[in-house]
Automatic annotation (TrEMBL):
<feature type="transmembrane region" description="Helical">
    <location>
        <begin position="38"/>
        <end position="58"/>
    </location>
</feature>
<feature type="transmembrane region" description="Helical">
    <location>
        <begin position="91"/>
        <end position="111"/>
    </location>
</feature>
<keyword id="KW-1133">Transmembrane helix</keyword>
<keyword id="KW-0812">Transmembrane</keyword>
<feature type="transmembrane region" description="Helical">
    <location>
        <begin position="117"/>
        <end position="135"/>
    </location>
</feature>
<keyword id="KW-0472">Membrane</keyword>
<protein>
    <recommendedName>
        <fullName>ABC transporter permease</fullName>
    </recommendedName>
</protein>
<feature type="transmembrane region" description="Helical">
    <location>
        <begin position="186"/>
        <end position="209"/>
    </location>
</feature>
<feature type="transmembrane region" description="Helical">
    <location>
        <begin position="12"/>
        <end position="32"/>
    </location>
</feature>
<feature type="transmembrane region" description="Helical">
    <location>
        <begin position="147"/>
        <end position="166"/>
    </location>
</feature>
Length: 219
């Protein structure tokens, strides 16, 4: 497991660097956000934060894509390795990257005090756990084959949530809209349900995938 974690972090160090830089930039802008001369930078920072969050949430797919393209990792697999250990390492790594996502996001929402966007983050994290559950199940059957298809499938619900939950959520606060109880339930209650359900499905999928690969555990 340690070998796989090392491999994951080695291939994603640039994502950690990008995320760390964005945290510093966000906190710096928060400290000086009252200054008029930084206002033109806000739109650029918004775009950079979206890109950073996209990479931190999809780092697993990025790593597996690079593994398929780069054979320099093969020395780490010189000794027998168990798929169950790789699966466990990938799950731990994904959780750590979600924590990095939360850190970057938390530094971002301090700019302009957009704390209402945390509801959108809950939806995105929950959806990420759902999609990684499918990833775990496919891992037990095909390991990292068709990684680009998996990446595309992974981003579909995240994109839908961003467009139809995060953006309406932000507009609701910006324009102080009151759209009724149903809309309030959708914006502020559904995220908690999605997050809890995603965590449960993620745990079940890990158990299922681990059980599925026991019969041919050695790569």
């Amino acid at each position: 497991m340690k070998k796989q974690l090392y491999l994951n972090f080695s291939y994603s160090k640039w994502i950690w660097l990008f995320g760390g830089v964005m945290i510093i930039v966000n906190l710096t802008l928060t400290a000086f956000q009252s200054a008029d001369n930084i206002q033109p930078l806000i739109e650029i920072i918004n775009i950079l934060n979206i890109i950073a969050l996209g990479y931190t949430m999809s780092s697993m797919q990025s790593i597996h894509a690079r593994i398929r393209e780069n054979d320099s990792h093969q020395f780490l697999y010189a000794l027998p390795v168990r798929k169950s250990e790789i699966l466990r390492a990938d799950c731990i790594y994904h959780i750590i990257m979600l924590l990095l996502t939360v850190a970057v996001f938390s530094s971002y929402v301090t700019i302009g005090h957009k704390y209402h966007l945390y509801y959108g983050l809950l939806m995105l994290v929950g959806a990420s756990l759902f999609m990684m559950s499918l990833y775990n199940i496919m891992f037990s059957q095909t390991w990292i084959q068709n990684v680009y298809i998996k990446t595309f499938i992974y981003f579909i619900p995240l994109g839908i949530i961003f467009m139809f939950h995060v953006m309406p959520l932000n507009n609701t606060f910006i324009y102080d809209l009151d759209l009724g109880a149903a809309w309030e339930f959708y914006l502020f209650r559904i995220p908690f349900i999605v997050l809890v359900a995603g965590a449960l499905v993620y745990a079940v999928s890990y158990y299922f995938a681990k059980k599925k690969i026991i019969k041919s555990d050695i790569i």
